[in-house]
Amino acid sequence: MDIQFTAVFQKVPEGYIAFVEELPGANTQGATLDEARENLQEAISLVLEANRVLAEESIEGRDVIREPLRIRAA
């Protein structure tokens, strides 16, 4: 899959805070920039999985079509 997000990092007294512009809820912090980057990867995975679970629950028992969707960065 070829998808690209924009990570935003802000230096704060405690280290760094980070979020993904395109993915509300994907935010984290870290004592160092590297730690914030690693934590943001995990936050992205957790948000995507949580959204998947919520979507599956909302369509449970309904007649739907599910198929893979590939996104290519522009």
Question: Can you walk through the features of this model?
Answer:
The chain has one helix at 33-59; strands at 7-12, 15-20, 27-30. The chain has a 3-stranded antiparallel β-sheet, with helices on one face. The longest helix has 27 residues, at 33-59. Helices cover 36% and strands 22% of the residues. The chain is elongated, with a radius of gyration of 16 Å. Strand 2 (15-20) and strand 3 form a beta hairpin.
Quick structural gist:
The chain has 74 residues and is α+β, with helices and mostly antiparallel strands.
Task: Give me the secondary-structure topology.
Layout: E1 7-12, E2 15-20, E3 27-30, H1 33-59
Antiparallel strand pairs: 1-2, 2-3
